[in-house]
């Protein structure tokens, strides 16, 4: 096992943290919240998760990534391949994840050690002239262990772990791929004959490389309220790009919506599969807080019928304008409703962050008044 230092990406859009997570808790009368953009590490953090996968074979999210352990504190993402030329081998990654889950140890190190040994036995049994595999299989993985606010990560291969602190900064693992070697040697990545070559693995585990060690962080990452931990498959992350993943992670509050959005955008014609696991850290129970605010919401006089609309559709209004209302649901997803939809009590529609990110950014920076519009 090798040890590497934490890698911190350059700041992208400033240093604003914690976009509307209710991290500051409840302030003031019903329906009025304060958005704390300077929250610090808490001893106890709530976690909400989302998972998604898109694949050209018949495979689901649990074939590539799972939460493991009694308290679901270990997140494991696995990419197996059947031979040197295969893009993915869902049967192999599912089998490796099964081995991790079967191990009763709560230690990721113990789980991985046993799973690696079992994978060698599996490969020897199924590869070769009498086996049912076309080549000699291999596997790569990224495993995150969550202990309160601390996140320990160990990885081998190209899948990424990324801790997003608002829109300002991230911690990210360094993948074992050709792109990393290009950057280490100061070679222009455009020199690659094909962009997909850049995501080819330089390290993996299997019968042809049984001594290949994984690496782990020198120091655990520290999560704070509003932070988002993303595990994302190699080609999906590098196809979408670091800045896009960071922006979406800092903007979309619903972890399942974020996982689906990342997987959908990354799953293009150029990659075989996209897998995503999202963990969002919060200092309060966000769904319960939003529901409590909705039940107590008192709409301003010009839009007095919006109180009944908010309770009927379980949405907390955040802002009003001549076109209608933007609000947030208990899951954290943002929705919009026109005046016609409010008057006729039709359901609000999901906000497309690509169309409304300037407005969303303004909402995140409001110091007070959220949920008691009009504020934008």
Structure description:
The protein is an alpha+beta fold. The chain has helices spanning 90-102, 108-126, 178-184, 234-240, 242-251, 255-266, 286-295, 306-313, 339-343, 353-364; strands spanning 2-4, 46-55, 65-68, 74-81, 138-147, 150-156, 160-165, 169-172, 215-217, 221-222, 228-232, 273-282, 316-321, 324-328, 334-338, 349-350. The strands form three sheets. Strands 1, 3, 4, 5, 6, 9 and 10 form a seven-stranded mixed beta sheet that branches. Strands 2-12-11-7-8 form a five-stranded antiparallel beta sheet. A four-stranded antiparallel beta sheet has the order 13-14-15-16. Helix 4 (234-240) crosses helix 6. The longest helix has 19 residues, at 108-126. Mean pLDDT is 78; it is low at 1-42 and 361-376.
